[in-house]
Amino acid sequence: MEFELRVALAADKDAIAQLIGESAHGLGPPFYSPEQIDAALQSAFGVDSQLIEDGTYFLAVRNGLIAGCGGWSYRATLFGSDREASRSPAAVDPRSGAARIRAFFIHPAFARKGVGSLILHRCEAEAWCRGFRRLELMATLSGLAFYARHGYVAGNPIQHGLGNGLTIEFAPMSKALQERP
To answer: Which of 135, 71, 127, 129 is nearest to 98 (CA)?
Structure first.
């Protein structure tokens, strides 16, 4: 399948939010309960407007439908939507810090069809061009194998609080870029 890869625009926010919900509910089970997914969609999962404003968030489109989205960031925030309390707009120095791979969501109908890889390669190449030689991300359990196939190494899992006594497990991952992607 062929996909057009383009920069996300502010006008795409509603469509991105819809895709994120479909992705989380369609690909999240059996890793997360419906309650965890619904709670994560209120903070940890969702649209990050900063990525869109920075021009570092991409959409893979096929026949006018968004098949997937994802991006990278030179800012300190590692994960979370506009509603996540732990956000920081501080810039990361590429000489000493890592770029962030952020907010990848694939529509279930397009899972395992190369959409995530297409977006990830673009993100890695852009981060390289901005001087970054290390990448970090916070993987969902459903995305862990995908990132591992692309050379990311997992650290110890974390439990992220979602409120109302719910938590969700994520895995921090990192990758060193030895050459231009």
So the answer is: 135
Q: What is the pTM of this model?
A: 0.96
Q: How many helices (H) and strands (E) does the chain have?
A: 5, 8
63 Cβ contact partners less than 8 Å away, ≥ 6 residues apart: none
Element (H, E) at 14: helix 13-27
Grouped pLDDT means (10 residues each) for the chain, 181 residues: 95 98 97 96 94 98 96 96 87 97 97 97 97 98 97 97 94 95 87
Pick from 134, 121, 142: nearest CA to 27:
142
Tokens 């890793």 correspond to: 31
Please answer whether residues 152 and 174 qualify as being in contact, where contact means their C-beta atoms are separated by less than 8 angstroms.
Answer: yes
Residue 18 CA to residue 15 CA, distance in Å, equals 5
Count the helix, strand and coil residues of the chain and give each as a percent rounded to the nearest 5.
30, 30, 40
